[in-house]
Specification:
The protein is α/β, with parallel strands linked by helices. It is built from 13 helices and 14 strands. Strand 6, helix 8 and strand 7 form a beta-alpha-beta unit. It is globular.
Length: 391
């Protein structure tokens, strides 16, 4: 498997336009505080450079969860090997945004070209790198897209997961290795009578994506029991961030609200506004993944906030943060409804709280605020670029 030469790039934040007037002063003060915190974190990372590194392989490292997990692991002194597809157009953008010292990134972050549909390359990478931990996060994770492209979704989410799991099994004959499989709340199917959903709630998948994840989940449990492997499944409920893909509903909302605020967009077209989800912050959730692999015994855990909100609530909160009335800009479009809708997903994270000591740290309104403010800065920079081109 080919290793990608890593080029240092400027942080995305350094390219953001400055605010004017009092807003600039407030942002400057906040920025100084954030910079001080970041510098302390970077100093801590630099101190780990000379210590023996644990080694992790992360599939899907260029995605939302993969980039946050890489940030967490690098901060803990890991040597991180990430797998990215050659066709990934966003490989750099999320990884460039990592809050990691350049020295740490250059030494401890290694990217490899690979694909979950190519079992031989996966096998070779795992056996060559010999990681202590494997995090399988790679997937075609857009539920609506899985109906349009079910075969690819299954190949990556089910067969691909099986290939990584089998590679971990072969490696376990040489050394101790721990495996994490990214499961999903979509496996439950959203029957209101089963809420809140826990680790013992029966699965009722309602999309090709969910079906693929159910297969991967059961295979992981099977390998754990059949081969005495340290293999865990994290059943993560919806988790969002500024690094979320723009086609996912939450990011679609915050991106559109910011662009409307800046006069760059007129309307936002939406599907089902009544769907209820348990939304958390991706940065909080990757800590749960890591904690699962630090226990004495492997097990499966639900990672969730334990509270639910409708899509309409997310809309209202995002637009209100920008002093906008969402009803003035949103129109319903039947094209965005799923063939089979999942009405309610609400997780019970009691087991993760008790056994992992994990807690969600970011409330719903704070999560929306983080996403809106990031997209607002992005929209402002787009507005500046548009003005310059017009001039």
């Amino acid at each position: 498997m080919e290793t990608i030469e890593w080029y240092e790039r400027s942080r995305v934040e350094s390219q953001e336009p400055r605010a004017e007037g009092g807003e600039q002063e407030n942002q400057s003060e906040t920025g100084n505080q954030e910079s001080a915190i970041r510098l302390r974190a970077l100093d801590s990372q630099l101190a780990t450079l000379d210590s023996p590194a644990r080694r992790a392989v992360v599939t899907g490292i260029a995605g939302q969860d993969g980039s946050y997990l890489a940030e967490l692991l690098l901060g803990k002194g890991y040597e991180v090997h990430g797998i990215v597809r050659r066709s990934s157009s966003i490989t750099r953008s999320r990884l460039d945004a990592l809050s990691v010292a350049p020295e740490v990134r250059r030494k401890n972050l290694v990217l490899h070209y690979g694909d979950l549909t190519d079992p031989h390359s996966l096998m070779n990478l795992v056996l060559d790198v010999e990681p202590d931990e494997i995090y399988n996060l790679g997937a075609q994770s857009h539920v609506r897209v899985s109906f349009d492209n079910p075969l690819y979704t299954i190949n990556v989410g089910a067969t691909g997961a099986f290939s990584v799991l089998e590679a971990a099994r072969l490696l376990s004959k040489r050394k101790d290795v721990r495996f994490y499989q990214a499961s999903t709340s979509e496996m439950f199917g959203g029957d209101p009578e089963t809420a809140p959903q826990s680790e013992t709630t029966p699965f009722h998948p309602r999309s090709p994506y969910a079906c693929a994840k159910v297969f991967a989940h059961h295979q992981t449990v099977n390998y754990r029991e059949a081969y005495d492997m340290y293999a865990c499944c994290g059943i993560l409920f919806n988790h969002e961030s500024p690094r979320r893909g723009e086609t996912f509903v939450t990011r679609k909302i915050t991106r559109a609200a910011a662009r409307i605020k800046e006069g760059l967009q007129d309307k936002l077209y939406m599907g089902n506004l009544d769907a209820k989800r348990d939304w958390g912050y991706a940065k909080d959730y990757v800590e749960g993944m890591w904690r699962m692999l630090q226990q004495e015994e492997p097990d499966d855990y639900v990672i969730a906030t334990g509270e639910t909100h409708t899509v309409e609530e997310f809309l209202e909160s995002a637009f209100a943060h920008l002093d906008l009335q969402w009803r003035d800009y949103v129109e319903i479009d039947p094209r965005f409804f799923r063939p089979s809708e999942v009405d309610l997903l609400l997780g019970d994270p009691a087991k993760a709280r008790e056994k992992l000591g994990w807690e969600p740290h970011t409330p719903f309104q704070e999560l929306v605020k983080i996403m809106v403010e990031t997209d607002w800065r992005l929209a402002k920079s787009e507005g500046v670029t548009k003005t310059r081109k017009a001039a």
